[in-house]
From TrEMBL:
Lineage: Bacteria, Pseudomonadati, Pseudomonadota, Alphaproteobacteria, Hyphomicrobiales
Recorded superkingdom: Bacteria
Provenance organism: Bradyrhizobium macuxiense
Entry protein name: Uncharacterized protein
């Protein structure tokens, strides 16, 4: 997801607040091509709820 969606998903009020925490509390984007930056929901889940998000939550069972 784009930074604006990732920020909202993580509960940040602004994209800038989210980006300031990327690489510290939030993961680096999984896709970084030119200006394109995309985060995976599983990576964000692991950052905001590490006790719940173990493994690939999007994996089909």
């Amino acid at each position: 997801m784009r930074a604006d969606l990732a920020a909202g998903y993580c509960g940040e009020t602004t994209v800038d607040d989210f980006l300031k925490r990327v690489g510290k509390e939030y993961p680096m984007p999984r896709v970084a091509e030119g200006r394109r930056r995309l985060w995976l929901i599983d990576d964000l889940d692991a950052a905001i709820a590490p006790h719940i998000a173990q493994g690939d939550l999007a994996e089909d069972y």
